[in-house]
């Protein structure tokens, strides 16, 4: 039981789903995420000490962080994200007061729905709230990204933290990761719904594989920067790619092909969404999954089994993995009237093929950061 009266603020930040535009945020591409009602909530009150005392609604652990030793908690099993987030705020000149924080996370860990971004963003916003500051969602997202990179060691792009901080109820966000310009597009799928299913693959070295992909695209940029006159890979057009593809080694060439074509798919997805052309949007999702499977190699047999089971259901317009990959979730666009049948069918087929159960989530498209005085 949470006794809200014991705390001064309730601050939330969202998990996210990415509709399309995968593994291109760190290449300066445009991505198309939306914030979810699955979120991290921080209940916070100042405690007049030099300690941040952490507790969780879902864990028996209690962790104390000394505010002048925040760099020393990287090895913690629980509390490292909060320590990294507080440290980045401190380094940026933000005040860190001792406080008690109760964390309540409904974003499943390791689901690819950005539980870590939700924790980082809500922690930074909560620390600002007790100082009486007005929260700046974009700055908060940037600090949270820095925590993920420099503290948690995942060299991520900005998509997750931005969506977590700046999401808007019932809207997808078309985020330009080069300029951080963002337009909100009503997420109206007519008679279709978005269905999120977790393949439940146990976590395995996701971070190192993620960083490896990122290094591959960085190496491609070094080769192409001057020749193609680009500052990020997302600037490379399909035509330019075809002209210089032979300069790249096989694997790196496939990675770049994915990036270039995924950027195109995002443009087309926006048009399809605005026209209400769900069939076209669904096809783009399917193509994105195929590209992530064969060119970017970030899916794995579990996500492939889940996506192909989904794609084979007659009420499904399209399905793909969402997030970093190697495990986690798919999203599918499915006729609302057939949603229950779809879920049963996909989960049955998945379990038969993989040997354990997938799990479906009920989530809405929700706001990013919220702050309430209690
Ligand atoms: C993870 C990262 C994001 C993004 C996605 C893939 O979620 O945190 O920055 O790169 O993977 O699109």
Overview of the molecule:
- This protein has 374 residues and is of the alpha+beta class.
- 40% of the residues lie in helices and 22% in strands.
- The protein contains ten helices and 13 strands.
- The protein has helices at 80-91, 115-129, 137-151, 159-166, 206-228, 238-244, 250-275, 278-294, 301-311, 339-354; strands at residues 9-18, 30-31, 33-46, 51-56, 62-66, 99-105, 171-176, 182-186, 192-198, 316-322, 329-335, 359-361, 370-373.
- The strands form three sheets. A six-stranded mixed beta sheet has the order 5-4-6-3-1-13. A four-stranded antiparallel beta sheet has the order 10-11-9-12. A three-stranded antiparallel beta sheet has the order 2-7-8, covered by helices on one side.
- Strand 10 (316-322) and strand 11 (329-335) form a beta hairpin.
- It is globular, with a radius of gyration of 21 Å.
- The two termini are 16 Å apart.
- The mean pLDDT is 96.
- Alpha-D-galactopyranose binds at residues 18, 22-23, 25-26, 156-157, 159-160, 323-324.
- Residues 18, 22-23, 25-26, 156-157, 159-160, 323-324 line the site of alpha-D-galactopyranose.
Gyration radius, rounded:
21 Å
Order of helices and strands: EEEEEHEHHHEEEHHHHHEEHEE
How many DSSP-defined strands? 13
Strand content: 15-25%
- The percentage helix is 40-55%
Shape: globular
């Amino acid at each position: 039981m949470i006794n809200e009266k014991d705390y001064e603020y309730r601050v939330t930040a969202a998990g996210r789903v990415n509709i399309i535009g995968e593994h291109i945020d760190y290449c300066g591409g445009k991505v198309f995420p939306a914030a979810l009602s699955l979120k991290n909530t921080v209940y916070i009150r100042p405690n007049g000490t030099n300690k941040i005392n952490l507790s969780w609604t879902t864990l028996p652990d209690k962790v104390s962080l000394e505010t002048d030793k925040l760099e020393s908690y990287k090895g913690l099993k629980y509390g490292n994200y909060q320590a990294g987030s507080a440290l980045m705020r401190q380094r940026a000149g933000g005040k860190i007061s001792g406080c008690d924080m109760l964390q309540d996370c409904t974003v499943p860990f390791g689901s690819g729905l950005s539980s870590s971004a939700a924790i980082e963003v809500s922690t930074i916003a909560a620390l600002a709230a007790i100082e009486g500051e007005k929260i700046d969602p974009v700055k908060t997202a940037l600090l949270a990204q820095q925590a993920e990179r420099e503290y948690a060691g995942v060299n991520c792009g900005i998509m997750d933290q931005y969506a977590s901080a700046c999401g808007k109820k019932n809207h997808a966000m078309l985020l330009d990761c080069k300029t951080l310009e963002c337009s909100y597009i009503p997420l109206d799928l007519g008679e279709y719904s978005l269905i999120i299913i977790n393949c439940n693959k146990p976590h395995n070295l996701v971070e190192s594989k993620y960083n490896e992909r990122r290094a591959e695209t960085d190496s491609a940029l070094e080769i192409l920067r001057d020749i193609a006159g680009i500052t990020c890979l997302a600037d490379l057009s399909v035509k330019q790619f075809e002209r210089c593809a032979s300069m790249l080694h096989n694997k790196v060439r496939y990675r770049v092909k994915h990036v270039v074509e995924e950027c195109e798919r995002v443009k087309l997805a926006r048009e399809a969404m605005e026209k209400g052309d769900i069939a076209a949007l669904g096809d783009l999702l399917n193509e994105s999954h195929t590209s992530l499977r064969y060119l970017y190699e970030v899916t794995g047999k579990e996500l492939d089994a889940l996506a192909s089971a989904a794609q084979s259901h007659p009420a499904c317009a399209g399905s793909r993995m969402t997030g970093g990959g190697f495990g986690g979730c798919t999203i599918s666009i499915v006729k609302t009237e057939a949603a229950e049948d779809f879920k049963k069918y996909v989960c049955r087929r998945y379990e038969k093929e993989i040997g354990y159960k997938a799990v479906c989530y009920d989530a809405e498209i929700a706001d990013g950061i919220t702050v309430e005085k209690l």
